[in-house]
Amino acid sequence: MDTKTHWDKVYTTKAPDAVSWYRAHLETSLALIERAVDARSASIIDVGGGESTLVDDLLLRGYKNVTVLDVSQSAIDLTKGRLGAAAEQVRWLVADITKIELELGAYDLWHDRAVFHFLTDREQRTAYVRQVARSVKPGGHIIVSTFGPEGPTKCSGLEVMRYDAESLHREFGARFRLIESSKEVHHTPFGTTQQFLYCYCRID
Fold first, then answer.
1. Is the whole-model pTM more than 0.70?
2. CA 174/CA 152 separation, integer angstroms
3. Which residue ranges form the domains of the chain, and what is each CATH number?
4. What is the DSSP string of 93-139?
5. Digit-coded pLDDT (tens) for 81-128
């Protein structure tokens, strides 16, 4: 099963709050974003946005230039439906982040919660980092969250990578300056916990 088919199946067979990564609000991401880009005109891309409520909360906070990218058309359609008329304020991209060619220097901030750890092949990770380096403006901000060292080894039936701050930063390279990192215990809808790692970088 290819990536798109896999995630379309997940989003069409499970309710939004019936997946392990569900969180009503991404408080840690929101706090980092508001610290990184105060201007509400900042261009933000949420990679793997799926059914996340991050876009809802960004719009509520007055951000006016938000892009949501996901490989699953089903996830995008569900989120558009949830937002209603507000969906017209968002740019939607349905694509594999390792294959699409994003616009050069398009974004002030790149956000990814729980995509990068699914990239188990080095070629995929290299393509992903190339996308970030191409599409984020010099001086721009990158917030990436993956499973931490004590996180699960599989998610949604797929193998994943686990990172600490040093190993995750090493994937991106010296051009990305690590500003801070933190770990978060995520409580799943099933009563279990998952360790997430957040890294916030700036690109030189």
1. yes
2. 28
3. 3-203 (3.40.50.150)
4. EES-TTT--PPTT-EEEEEEESSGGG--SHHHHHHHHHHHHHHEEEE
5. 999 999 999 999 999 999 999 999 999 999 999 999 999 999 999 999
